[in-house]
Amino acid sequence: MTVLHELYERAHQSPWIDDLKRSYIDRGGLEELITKGIRGVTSNPTIMANSIASTNDYDDQFRELIHGGKTVEEAYWELVIYDILGALDQLRAIYDASNGGDGFVSLEVAPSLARDTKATISSARHLHERIDRPNLMVKIPATKQGIPAIEEMIAGGRSINVTLIFSLERYAEVVEAYIRGVERLVDRGGDPSRVASVASFFVSRVDTEIDRQLGPDSELAGRVALAQARLAYQYFDQSFHSARFQSLAEIGARPQRPLWASTSTKNPAYPDLLYVEGLIAPNTVNTLPVSTMNAFLDHGVVARSIPQDPSTEEEVLKALDAAGIKLSQVTDLLEEQGLASFSGSFDELLAQLEVKAAQLGGPL
């Protein structure tokens, strides 16, 4: 048993891998990760862009698609969906064994749709219909425009990974959208037990930006991201043990688990597992970049680290405000940067594929 198995069995936290590439599907890479204890997969436009651009693994399929008359963007989605389908198949046994609790693979809507509610709903619905697997989660960014799309998809019985959550305020909106969506699903006669969702709360980027503003010698450096994420967990615990949700749980509704994202340590002065060992608690997911997963396999320690009493975390956020830094301004900035990063990766990859298509002599 690896420490990843121990994380799930003892601490009731599910380790997912924050990576997806063709070698995971065609050369046994994902099967090996599952053996080590990985129980799900997340991807995003940056991950997929890096996977496609950094190897030749996709060239044969891309050439066939281009010569078959696909546009570059159509070909991109075919490449991605091939990987997603392969991962879904390999994780299906975990999905079945956990009664739909794990074994999910996440695929994000196009980043250009993040500020368009109707287009996000249409795209998410299309992806769910095209990839007709129960363990697919479509990722929707938690923008103001994304919140009603999340509710609509949950109400329609679709499993959703809500991504790019940076603030407690936005997290509360996500939880409300999920519960309202489940209530609407039940009202229309749907089965809530068939719907799963995670709320992807981004961690390390918060410290990166706040440390930049504070300076490295501040006593708050490296503390705010964990404090905020732990307070999010307290909110999760209260919300999904409320009388309102318990009435839904009694007929099969699942809580929307917090998923800790951006858990690699960006500052080399901090422990490499700061955002993994610091956020262990039941009914959560931690999606691990490969390097962070390997570090945890090598020297990770499994012990609950999110305290029952949130008073220390509240004091950290009060001290940050007293230091003149408005956390809401930081998280607004991080949301914009996150969207810009994903959009940039997507656009850059399409430009690279345009060049490759021209080299192959196919239509553009």
Detailed description of the structure:
The protein has a single domain (3-360), classed as Alpha-Beta Barrel (TIM Barrel), CATH 3.20.20. It has 16 helices and 8 strands. The chain has helices at residues 3-11, 22-26, 29-36, 45-54, 59-67, 72-97, 117-130, 146-155, 168-187, 204-214, 224-239, 243-249, 274-277, 290-299, 311-322, 327-360; strands at residues 13-18, 41-42, 105-108, 136-141, 160-165, 197-202, 257-261, 284-288. An 8-stranded parallel β-sheet has the order 2-1-8-7-6-5-4-3. β3 (105-108), α7 and β4 form a beta-alpha-beta unit. α9 runs parallel beside α11 (224-239). The longest helix has 34 residues, at 327-360. The model has no long low-confidence stretch (mean pLDDT 95).
Please tag this protein with its features.
364 residues, alpha/beta, TIM Barrel, eight-stranded parallel β-sheet, globular
Distance N to C terminus:
50 Å
- Residue fraction in strands: 5-15%
Oligomer classification: single chain
Question: What is the CATH third-level topology name?
Answer: TIM Barrel
Question: Taking Cα atoms only, what radius of gyration do you get, to the nearest Å?
Answer: 20 Å
Biggest β-sheet strands, sense, barrel: 8 strands, parallel
Mean pLDDT across all residues, rounded?
Answer: 95
**Total beta strands:** 8
Question: How many structural units, i.e. domains?
Answer: 1
CATH architecture, please? Alpha-Beta Barrel
CATH superfamily: Aldolase class I
Structural class category: alpha/beta
H and E string = HEHHEHHHEHEHEHEHHHEHEHHH
Classify the helix fraction into a percent range. Answer: 55-70%
As residue ranges, the low-confidence spans are: none
